[in-house]
Amino acid sequence: MFKAIMITKDDAGYRAELQEVDEARLPESDVTVRVAYSTLNYKDALAITGKSPVVRSFPMVPGIDFAGTVETSSHPGFKAGDAVVLNGWGVGEVHWGGLAQKVRVKGDWLIPLPAAFTPRQAMAIGTAGYTAMLCVMALERHGLKPDMGEILVTGASGGVGSVAVALLAARGYRVVASTGKAQEADYLKSLGAAEIVDRAQFSGPGKPLAKERWAGAVDTVGSHTLANVCAGTKYRGVVAACGLAQGMDFPATVAPFILRGVTLAGVDSVYCPKPERLEAWQRLARELDPARLDAITAEIALGEAIAKAPDLLAGKVRGRIVVDVNR
Length: 327
Known about the structure:
By secondary structure, this protein is an alpha/beta fold. It has two domains: about 1-115 and about 290-325, Alpha-Beta Complex (Quinone Oxidoreductase, Chain A, domain 1); about 125-265, Rossmann fold (3-Layer(aba) Sandwich), CATH 3.40.50.720. The chain is built from ten helices and 15 strands. It has helices at about 40-50, 120-140, 160-170, 185-190, 200-205, 225-230, 255-260, 275-285, 290-295, 305-315; strands spanning about 1-10, 15-20, 30-40, 65-75, 85, 100-105, 110, 150-155, 175-180, 195-200, 215-220, 235-240, 265, 295-300, 320-325. The strands form three sheets. Strands 3, 4, 5, 6, 7, 14 and 15 form a seven-stranded mixed β-sheet that branches. Helix 2 (about 120-140) packs across helix 8 (about 275-285).
């Protein structure tokens, strides 16, 4: 038996509960992992609360990422005792996920835990930090360099935004952090932000084009915010889009793209090919100071995750939430 958060949907309604689960119920796959830490992400909060149809089959264990130790494996790439990390691949949506003490997944979905990180540190990074690195990689793949100008990060006090600020600042970019939480200014400056701006200037309907300011941007918000970021991006600038906290809509025009040559680069972390995953984690191991993780991380027990989910959706959470599944 092991503990897990289980989401069910039946005639009695939609609910998430902490349960004792028989290991025999684990899905069929080739690697069983004893989980050390998981995380609570925006998508997990949507799944737990049922605010969005994230979960595609029931019953479901949420948790889109985890770090732990291989218990049994029939996969040639992993053996018992290996330390591993998983991000995405539909776990917590269509396949039982990491908010549990045990998981069984495809070995092809796993990557070795970088030696630079403990399991807890890997989950302080989690899908959010890994996504932030994918955004940095997308910006640089399109030619962005620190001497080209300012980089805007929206939703900067959230998980992806916090790590993106730290990564970009460490690489020498002048980072402007957009947030609706004025009280987080010192926190964001401690991560390396050079300037803090109010998200209100981006969150309403804007013009097709605005004054050129940003050489690049990481947008975690979507909707009007993404449209306004693109409108204010400089000639041949690059915007990496990875989130939808404000909405899935994109009320923009083609003006930034056909008049300024702006590139809008979509970033998907869920089904990102394994070589890019490995590159992202290798770069995180080299470029992210583990001491930064303490400033952006809060830890909760597995049983606290259900109650914490509404706070995350309401924007009341700073940075990352690590879940110790064994307490």
